[in-house]
Amino acid sequence: MTKTIVLTGAARGIGLQLARAYRERGDTVIATARKLSAAKRLRDLNASAGLEIAQLDVTEPVSVRRFAEQMDKRSIDVLINSAGVLGGDHQSLDDMDFDAWLDAFDVNTLGPFRVTTALMSSLVLSPAPKVITLTSQMGSLHRNSVGQHAYRSSKAAANKVMQVMAVELKDRGIIVCPIHPGWVRTEMGGRQADISVEESARGLLSVIDRLSIEDSGRFWTWEGNEHPW
Ligand SMILES: NC(=O)c1ccc[n+]([C@@H]2O[C@H](COP(=O)([O-])OP(=O)(O)OC[C@H]3O[C@@H](n4cnc5c(N)ncnc54)[C@H](OP(=O)(O)O)[C@@H]3O)[C@@H](O)[C@H]2O)c1
Fold first, then answer.
1. What would the pLDDT profile of 187-208 be if each residue is shown by its tens digit?
2. The pLDDT of residue 72
3. Positive or negative: CA dihedral 182, 26, 111, 42
4. 139 ligand 1 Cβ < 6 A
């Protein structure tokens, strides 16, 4: 059965490829971008693949509310929070951009919460709704790592938010999982990264398809392995 998929941050990178991949298999894709006028690749994909596109800045309550109103009474089967930022170029002990750090929290941590809660009335209309946030193994507390304080802490916090929401939403049958999408060749991941957007999206689709309520509140990788928190 075809599903309705909502994507944030679909202007480029993994979000854009997820839009393409879901559409290729016949799902209804509602792909959002914070600035549609600048999202040429998404607009081109829309022209060839027939998506629905909408403006959504995950840091702007008005934008989130407007999008949720557009979705009113429509069922959402899968919400994928893909919008993300690295948190600026200055994230070291002796050189920290605090504004960019706060922005990373706004986009990476508060964003998925804001969007998920705003879309709750649409999610509960699906027989098996799934909320996925693309977090990162860089936010895993299990790893001893250095640098990238803003990015790591915002993704660690996003993992926790997803875990708490999973417990809170289990009664409503909503599956909530953070997933690490791999180290992917995008503007964020860089050219040296391990995998292409196509490989990442293929893996993500397959993992997301298989998730059941027993898997909710657990941290997964794009390859379907459970990741330590
Ligand atoms: N690439 C990797 O190796 C990797 C690894 C682990 C996790 N991730 C996570 O996977 C997700 C996608 O990453 P990516 O590599 O595709 O990144 P990307 O190529 O840098 O794309 C990020 C997307 O997020 C959008 N965005 C940023 N701020 C936004 C906001 N306030 N509202 C709505 N959209 C916003 C950007 O829109 P604009 O085009 O308007 O800037 C862009 O479309 C991110 O959450 C990232 O942290 C990526």
1. 999 999 999 999 999 999 999 9
2. 87
3. positive
4. no
pLDDT at residue 172 tops 90: yes
**CB-ligand 1 contact for 83 (6 Å cutoff):** yes
Q: Is the pLDDT reported for residue 1 higher than 90?
A: no
87 lines ligand 1 (CB under 6 A): no
How many A from CA of 171 to the centre of ligand 1?
31
**What CATH number should be reported for the domain whose range is 4-221?**
3.40.50.720
Pocket test for ligand 1, best of 43, 63, 82, 159 (most atoms within 8 A of CB): 82
Question: How large is the average pLDDT for residues 151-175?
Answer: 98
Measured from the CB, is residue 85 less than 6 Å from ligand 1? yes
Tell me what pLDDT residue 56 has: 98
pLDDT band at 73 (very low <50, low <70, confident <90, very high): confident
**Does ligand 1 lie within 6 Å of residue 32's CB atom?**
no
pTM score of the predicted model: 0.98
